[in-house]
Design brief:
Elements: H1 3-15, H2 24-58, H3 61-76, H4 79-100, H5 110-135, H6 139-147, H7 152-182, H8 194-205, H9 208-229
Helix pairs in contact: 2-3, 2-5, 2-7, 2-8, 3-5, 4-5, 5-7, 6-7, 7-9, 8-9
Length: 230
């Protein structure tokens, strides 16, 4: 390594240091926020998806139609548009209603917005993945449980859910990875997740080829860790 390369390497390490003037702590804080939002959105999406899957399979005609509309629209509209609608349009409409009632304005937290919006999106996709997992459960298993007089709730807990989980795991794993990457969309509403923190660091220092590869490495770390655990 020549002198210029050594200086460049030292400069990059200084910029990524945890203490000022390094931005490492800011990037790690953004990474933590991204993971929190992804976990919250994935958990909310799983709750929605589980209810949606059972509703699509065993609900009445009206419920099935409503769930079909929900999954179709949400999967068709980009997540970025949904984030902007909830954070700006929905907040503006809500504040107009509150002001007309003589109440104070409110501001929805970006992290709550991120979890709710991405959770609703995750719920639409997870509904279809879990529905497919339920349909893949052998009919003989369910018939045997019913022949033994097993109640519906117990049947779902002991038979349907465990077998469904095995069938749905690959698709659910992909949706988790999508959730971790979709958190980057929250940068448009000013939330300091990893992508926003990376932009701030690179815009301030002009070291774009230092911070964006570092952000890529952190996203890759999340992906590899998640894949290993799954």
């Amino acid at each position: 390594m020549n002198g210029l390369e050594a200086i460049a390497a030292a400069s990059a390490l200084d910029l990524l240091a945890l203490s000022p003037p390094g931005w490492g702590a800011t990037l790690l804080a953004g990474l933590g926020n991204s993971v929190i939002i992804a976990l919250g959105a994935y958990g909310l999406g799983f709750a929605i998806g589980l209810c949606g899957a059972f509703g699509k399979l065993y609900g009445g005609p009206v419920l099935k139609d409503l769930l079909a509309v929900y999954t179709t629209i949400v999967r068709a509209v980009p997540e970025l548009v949904l984030i902007l609608i909830l954070f700006y349009a929905f907040t503006g409409l809500l504040n107009q209603m509150l002001l007309s009632w003589g109440m104070e304005r409110v501001q929805i937290s970006p992290i709550i917005t991120g979890i709710v919006v991405l959770g609703v999106v995750q719920g639409a996709y997870q509904t279809e993945v879990l529905r497919g997992g339920i349909l893949a459960v052998p009919a003989g298993q369910i018939e045997a449980a019913r022949a033994m007089g097993m109640p519906s709730v117990l049947l779902a807990r002991r038979i349907t859910l465990p077998l469904m989980t095995a069938n749905a795991l690959p698709g659910m794993a992909n949706l988790w990875l999508n959730a971790t990457k979709d958190t980057a969309l929250l940068a448009v509403i000013g939330f300091s997740e990893l992508t926003k923190a990376t932009y701030q660091a690179s815009a301030t220092t002009k070291a774009f080829f230092v911070f964006y590869p570092a952000a890529m490495a952190l996203y890759l770390l999340i992906s590899l860790t998640s894949t290993f655990l799954i």
